[in-house]
């Protein structure tokens, strides 16, 4: 029997399913984790039933499924503290599988049902809220594959007789990935930088062929065309499987060795050739205002050695945590999420990628706030001054009626005083946002 790898974490840990035997008798596949290529750990002993681990977040929480008699899969989350969470599905849904779990606890769940569209997906948020992923008109049978920490989901839908790779997020909705010259595609994994791995099929490639989309808007690249052969007895060929890509650019594949006849399937990791971190994408400049609930900063660096990430604001290291009413998530990853940002979070943001070779800083991003548009209507006018005056009169940096904290704290020093009034007046006099 072969191992079944499904996910590779940023530290190189792989999760999936491994065969379990009673003596020489095969029992079933059980959810497993490989901290090293030669060390397997059973996550769940599901007896004679099958269980599979499909994804793991930075805290060690694992998403997967467990079969229950008479063999229906049910979505599960195995927390790092040993707790198991059962995710409910609707009465009309017969099978449920948790595909991925993000660092903030969102889980991607695949379900099937006996009526159209038969296969669909939803995101279960950490608070238990369910968000169903909508279909593109004319498509059906959505099979999700992966979700990154920004909440971007990739997978495969059917459009008539063809399979097509799609991406979804709450901001952009559901859309197709570019096909280039191909006719069919499927997305299997996406990292926090938006790089996607999967398969394509089309002219010159009649079999399913491993491919990578370096961005959600770029054409697919045949993966085997980006490899430097190192062995005559193993290699990616059309039909071999690609499962995932991590934030260091490592791609998890299964290959067949030796060449036909009599070949066997093995799991392998493809890594970039260069040892030091190399940035392929840098964070965009971001402007926010007082109604912005979330800021995202993302970047991409890759290397053949494990990479760790850190973020600095104006040269000062930023860590995860709750700062008044602002929460920072992902400060040790390449995808930073700032919830309920206040003016204090504006500034120059830089991501650093570090491994045993070196530390490399990416291009800084400027995060600015439009202080003058105080009522967030896109205009700078008398209404903004009136709204600011009301907030300023409160003189309370933690007014419970203001969920984002102290709106009148223009300079972000957590005190409302004359300096804040002066700074707002200067911004207001410009009558535009920077």
Computed structural class: mainly beta
The CATH class of the largest domain is Mainly Beta
Kindly identify the CATH topology of the largest domain: Neuraminidase
CATH superfamily caption of the largest domain? TolB, C-terminal domain
- Which term fits the overall shape? globular
- Alpha carbon gap, first and last residue: 61 Å
- Overall number of structural domains: 3
Q: How confident overall, as mean pLDDT?
A: 84
Q: Proportion of β residues?
A: over 45%
Number of separate strands: 35
- By CATH, the architecture of the largest domain is named 6 Propeller
Radius of gyration: 24 Å
Helices, by number, come to 2
Describe this structure in words.
Helix 1 (382-394) packs antiparallel against helix 2. Strands 25, 28, 29, 33, 34 and 35 form a 6-stranded mixed beta sheet that branches. The longest helix is centred in the C-terminal third of the chain and has 13 residues, at 382-394. The chain has helices at 382-394, 418-430, and strands spanning 4-8, 14-22, 25-36, 39-42, 51-56, 62-68, 72-78, 84-86, 93-101, 107-113, 119-124, 130-132, 140-147, 153-159, 162-169, 173-176, 184-190, 196-202, 205-213, 221-222, 241-245, 251-257, 264-270, 278-281, 286-288, 294-298, 300-302, 308-313, 316-318, 321-323, 326-329, 335-339, 347-354, 359-361, 365-369. By secondary structure, the chain is mainly beta. It has 3 domains: 4-270, Neuraminidase (6 Propeller), CATH 2.120.10; 278-369, Sandwich (Immunoglobulin-like); 382-430, no CATH class.
């Amino acid at each position: 029997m072969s191992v079944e790898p499904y996910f590779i974490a940023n530290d190189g840990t792989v999760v999936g399913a491994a065969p379990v035997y009673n003596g020489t008798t095969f029992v079933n596949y059980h959810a497993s984790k490989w901290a090293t290529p030669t060390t397997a750990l059973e996550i769940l002993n599901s007896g004679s039933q099958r269980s599979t681990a499909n994804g793991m977040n930075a805290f060690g929480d694992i998403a997967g499924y467990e079969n229950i008699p008479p063999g229906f899969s049910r979505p599960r989350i195995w927390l790092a503290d040993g707790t198991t969470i059962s995710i409910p599905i609707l009465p009309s849904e017969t099978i449920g599988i948790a595909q991925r779990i993000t660092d903030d606890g969102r889980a991607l769940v695949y379900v099937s049902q006996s009526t159209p569209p038969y296969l669909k997906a939803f995101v279960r948020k950490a608070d238990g809220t369910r968000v169903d992923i909508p279909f593109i008109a004319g498509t059906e049978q959505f099979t999700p594959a992966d979700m990154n920490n920004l909440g971007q989901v990739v997978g495969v839908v059917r459009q008539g007789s063809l399979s097509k790779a799609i991406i979804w997020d709450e901001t952009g909705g559901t859309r197709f990935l570019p096909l280039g010259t191909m006719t069919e595609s499927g997305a299997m994994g996406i990292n926090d930088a938006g790089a996607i791995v999967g398969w394509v099929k089309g002219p010159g490639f009649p079999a399913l062929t491993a491919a990578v989309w370096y961005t959600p808007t770029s054409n697919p690249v045949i993966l085997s065309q980006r490899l430097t052969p190192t062995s005559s007895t193993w290699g990616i060929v059309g039909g071999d499987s690609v499962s995932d890509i991590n934030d260091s650019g490592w791609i998890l594949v299964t290959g067949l060795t030796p060449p036909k006849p009599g070949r066997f399937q093995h799991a392998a990791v493809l890594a970039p050739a260069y040892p030091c971190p190399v940035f392929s994408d840098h964070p965009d400049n971001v402007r926010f205002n007082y109604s912005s609930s979330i800021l995202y900063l993302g970047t991409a660096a890759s290397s053949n050695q494990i990479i760790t990430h850190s973020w600095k604001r104006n040269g000062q290291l930023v860590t995860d945590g709750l700062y008044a009413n602002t929460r920072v998530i992902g400060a040790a990853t390449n995808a930073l999420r700032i919830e309920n940002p206040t003016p204090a979070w504006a500034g120059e943001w830089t991501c650093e990628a570090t491994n045993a070779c070196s530390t490399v800083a990416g291009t800084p991003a400027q995060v600015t706030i439009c202080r003058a548009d105080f009522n967030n209507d896109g205009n700078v006018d008398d209404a903004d001054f009136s709204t600011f005056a009301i907030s300023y009169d409160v003189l309370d940096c933690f007014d419970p009626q203001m969920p984002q904290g102290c709106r009148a704290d223009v300079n972000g020093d957590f005190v409302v005083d004359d300096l804040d009034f002066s700074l707002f007046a200067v911004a207001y006099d410009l009558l535009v946002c920077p």
